[in-house]
Write a structure and sequence with these properties.
mainly beta; Protocatechuate 3,4-Dioxygenase, subunit A; 29% strand; disordered N terminus; Intradiol_dOase_core; Intradiol_RC_Dioxygenase; oxidoreductase; Protocatechuate 3,4-dioxygenase alpha subunit; dioxygenase
Length: 188
């Protein structure tokens, strides 16, 4: 929160909505490629960001944060500078005109008592702050039962946090910002 001064009186200023200005400065060419697609352990995560009416959000920005395949969280610099072989655990992708995004990454290993997941942040017009969610993997259903966060989500809403399998190395994860199929978002 910033403060404003008018005639020597300071006070809080209102929050500002994010975007769509971030599309000009934050996306970068290798942002969606957390790992190169040629790696044998590479997976592709793709989907769309949709508004409450089911229409695409063409100017959203997504960030992902995750552990590597062994469940280790990277703790070294270099999220922007990639050598084509390492793993930073971070990716960023702007949506296109159809609200679509994609990432090439690895399936994370489990961390702590959690089922494997990818943390997802969505920045979009009309939001005062980014919204946070998680992407879980459908083949980890047994681990979902003991995941503390999934256990706190009402059973009928959990499916909004689980990606759909697409082929051998692909996953689809659509994010609904509002409406009947709204994705579960987390408060921090």
């Amino acid at each position: 929160m910033t403060t404003a001064s008018h005639h020597g009186v300071s006070g809080p200023t209102p929050s500002q909505t994010v975007g769509p200005f971030f599309g000009y400065a934050l996306p970068y060419e290798t942002g969606p490629r957390v790992v190169p697609g040629w790696r044998p352990d590479a997976i592709e995560v793709r989907g769309r960001v949709l508004d409450g009416a089911g229409d695409p959000v063409p100017d959203a920005l997504l960030e992902i944060w995750q552990a590597d395949g062994n469940g280790e969280i990277p703790r070294r610099p270099g999220g922007l500078v990639r050598d084509g072989h390492g793993f930073s655990g971070f990716g960023r992708c702007a949506t296109d005109a159809d609200g679509a995004y994609w990432f090439t990454t690895v399936k994370p290993g489990a961390t702590g008592g959690n089922a494997p997941y990818i943390a997802v942040l969505v920045f979009a017009r009309g939001l005062l702050k980014p919204v946070f969610t998680r992407l879980y993997f459908p083949e980890d259903e047994a681990a979902h039962a003991s995941d503390p966060l999934l256990g706190a989500v009402p059973a009928e809403r959990r499916a909004t946090l689980v990606a759909e399998r697409e082929g051998e190395r692909g996953y689809r994860f659509d994010i609904h910002l509002q409406g009947e199929r709204e994705t579960v978002f987390l408060g921090f």
